[in-house]
């Protein structure tokens, strides 16, 4: 399925507010609610739309720190780490990357002591580098059509 301008308009609507009704999206893009529903269903079936989720503010639920932690895995420790990282509640995003490091994680932590104990769990797998997030510059920027 190639994405036409109408599909991109629907995706723009959903990326800005996935809770709006198909009727509201239809009004914004100029088609009927059933037509919107059909197009959304096709994009879901093809994996273009992968899921819908709620974003929770870590700070409003008690976390004081958000950090980016990179790991340069020790020889033979990358695969064990890839399994272990799935068990860490602190990790909200984790990427395997190219370059000097193997992994970059976005984590939320209660405080500096929590950061210290979390890093202590990581250092058996490799060298770590930590950057504390001060603020978001761009947050959940929508995916746009290729130019």
TrEMBL record:
Keywords: DNA-binding, Transcription, Transcription regulation
Entry annotated with the keyword DNA-binding: yes
Gene3D superfamilies for the chain: 3.30.70.920, Winged helix-like DNA-binding domain superfamily/Winged helix DNA-binding domain
A single GO cellular-component term on record: cytosol
BP GO terms, sorted: regulation of DNA-templated transcription; response to amino acid
Leader sequence segment: none
Domain of life: Bacteria
Identification of the protein by name: Lrp/AsnC family leucine-responsive transcriptional regulator
Pfam families: AsnC_trans_reg, HTH_24
Glycoprotein keyword on record: no
Domain HTH asnC-type stretches: 3-64
GO molecular function terms noted in the UniProt entry: sequence-specific DNA binding
């Amino acid at each position: 399925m190639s994405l036409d301008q109408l599909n991109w308009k629907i995706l723009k609507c959903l990326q800005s507010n996935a809770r709006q009704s198909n009727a509201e999206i239809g009004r914004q893009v100029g088609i009927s609610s059933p037509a919107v529903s059909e197009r959304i269903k096709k994009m879901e079936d093809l994996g273009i739309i992968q899921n819908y989720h709620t974003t929770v503010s870590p700070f409003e639920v008690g976390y004081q720190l958000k950090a980016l932690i990179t790991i340069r895995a020790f020889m033979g420790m990358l695969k064990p780490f890839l399994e272990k990282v799935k068990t860490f509640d602190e990790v909200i995003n984790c990427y395997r990357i190219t370059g000097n490091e193997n992994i970059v994680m976005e984590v939320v932590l209660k405080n500096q002591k929590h950061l210290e104990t979390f890093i202590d769990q990581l250092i058996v797998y490799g060298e770590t580098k930590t950057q504390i997030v001060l603020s978001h510059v761009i947050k959940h920027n929508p995916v746009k059509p290729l130019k």
